[in-house]
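Handout, section B. The chain below has 191 residues.
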Amino acid sequence: MMSPIELTLAVLLLLLTPGPTNSLVLLAGAERGLIGAMRLIPAELLGYLLTVVPLALVGGSVLQGHNGLRAGVTVAAAVWVAVLAVRLWRVPVVETGHTSVGARSLFVTTALNPKALIFGLVLLPSPDRLPANLVLFAGLVVLVAALWAGLGAVLRGGGVRQPQALFVLRRLAAVWLGAISIVLAVRSVGA
């Protein structure tokens, strides 16, 4: 069993790793500014909790011996991230007021985020510390989301408000999400 400090570091490092959720929060910060992106954090937190809590409570026993179920979740995540990549790629440059990241897409992306499997099955389960682990996890999710949103807001302040710059950032996010989708699809074969 990990100590609270070890758990904090493990969760923090995994949350900080660039992935589909962080990419969307960064883009939201660039499109909406810090305050606008912060309004999306409850959707991210709910998405994580929707997956993490059931997995932490009973996931290990349910998934044990059911590799097909784990692969199915990974495939669903790969498909969803690919859909997001296509949507971001298709946002036209001329829509200056258009925001490509909404609460629903952030919620679904986070609920399907493969990191949630690691949190729910490996890092957070503990018979005597689960409530405290979940509170710690929720606080760290909010902190890391604020950091990614802040980074996006800094990019916004650096000229990303310009339609062409936002277009390029969306395209870069789309390419990154496409790469993540491919990695997830390949992993699902070996899951």
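Note. Residues 83 and 178 are 9 Å apart (CA to CA). Compare this with the example in section A.
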